[in-house]
């Protein structure tokens, strides 16, 4: 996210689409009864500021009341839907991510127990299950009781496009009036199309997104769920590479980590594991000569070197490719294998012991850690509140620790990257000691 994205944002960009007036009293009335406004609770009539520095706020040159601000997440006293008439549906889409089952479980329990919704259906295999005529799973509290202890998704997932009209036909056939889409940028684009198709037909169906992806590339929010678990797991591979490298003669530990266009996993895992000498991310270009030279110096000075490379880094060094996956995501060249080859060849004058580790899918197929488990539960609750209020084409997430509702259109307009001028990258540079540019 660039400062210019922040500065360009207007009040209109932050408006949430509503299905209609809220006239139904919430069944959570007793719970909400004596809530006191505090620094930890934003009332439903208040707003969460976009800017959080004096400089940014001042730059807008407007009165405080006109500063752009997000709609706060959380329960509303008056609902659009009568929960007893709500059939909800859930789909999980795109790549696996720790916490998918936590989100499913929390959605089901919150929808059924807190709000008393009629039914919750789980469509299988992502958007595919909304288009292939397959029967959805009836998600009861009993069925989901223990699923949060497992990785993956009990609903299955997929990549690949489906016709929005067919998907809406399916929702109508099953009397679904609230759809929860759990996915990343691609899924959210799909959700936007679904909400638009429902609106075109005048159907009051709430479409609510829950931000999933280990890549952490969804903008405006603190992080997507699953990201922290993934980088914690990735750090274990770095530690293994460091142990191997520091125990060998001229040991090189090379670790390739996921992160298609954003280097957040590589950056954070570096800070967790420590002992990394070079972290290579898509946002910061490097040259082969610069890397070889740096590694050679490290071997001479400390006897070993550890290199962490995000899968999207250094793509300009590889043969160009236009291939895409079924969702239209560009297929990347294998930078890990390439660097293994180049380091071996480029340093062939030295007796090397190079160990290459690609933990790949192992970092995202695991259950959520404690942090993500908490976040998943809170996201699911925020998503349920948004749907019951009749908000649509909306995504929930935490921003600077506060839960917000934001238009999906805003979440898909840009993506989140490691800022080469930001504090995170500075912390990585300070930790690795690598030069500003390689
Ligand atoms: N621009 C788009 N419009 C509509 N649907 C999309 C779009 N991009 C992706 N999708 C659909 O969203 C689903 C998940 O997308 P994908 O990019 O694989 O994962 P993620 O949501 O994790 O980024 C797929 O079924 C894909 O076809
Ligand atoms: O499962 P696939 O298709 O091999 O995809 C791998 C990609 O999925 C990810 O794990 C996450 O992607 P999404 O969350 O956007 O689906 C990327 O880090 C990785 O590049
Ligand atoms: Mg994606």
Strand count, sense and barrel status of the largest sheet are: 9 strands, mixed
Instruction: Quickly give the CATH architecture of the largest domain.
Output: 3-Layer(aba) Sandwich
Within the largest sheet, what's the order of strands? Answer: 3-4-17-16-10-9-6-7-8
User: What shape does the CA trace take?
Assistant: globular
Domain Phosphofructokinase: 88-386
Protein name: ATP-dependent 6-phosphofructokinase
InterPro entries: ATP_PFK (IPR022953), PFKA (IPR050929), Phosphofructokinase_dom (IPR000023), PKF_sf (IPR035966), PyroP-dep_PFK_TP0108 (IPR012004)
Catalytic activity: beta-D-fructose 6-phosphate + ATP = beta-D-fructose 1,6-bisphosphate + ADP + H(+)
Describe this structure in words.
The chain is of the alpha/beta class and 438 residues long. Helix content is 35%, strand content 16%. The protein is built from 14 helices and 17 strands. Helix 7 (185-200) links the parallel strand 9 and strand 10 (206-211). It has two domains: 3-224 and 368-411, Rossmann fold (3-Layer(aba) Sandwich); 228-365, Phosphofructokinase domain (Rossmann fold, 3-Layer(aba) Sandwich). The chain has a nine-stranded mixed β-sheet with strand order 3-4-17-16-10-9-6-7-8, with helices on both faces. It has a four-stranded parallel β-sheet with strand order 12-13-11-14, sandwiched between helices. It has a two-stranded antiparallel ribbon with strand order 1-15. Adenosine-5'-diphosphate binds next to helix 7. Magnesium ion binds next to helix 7.
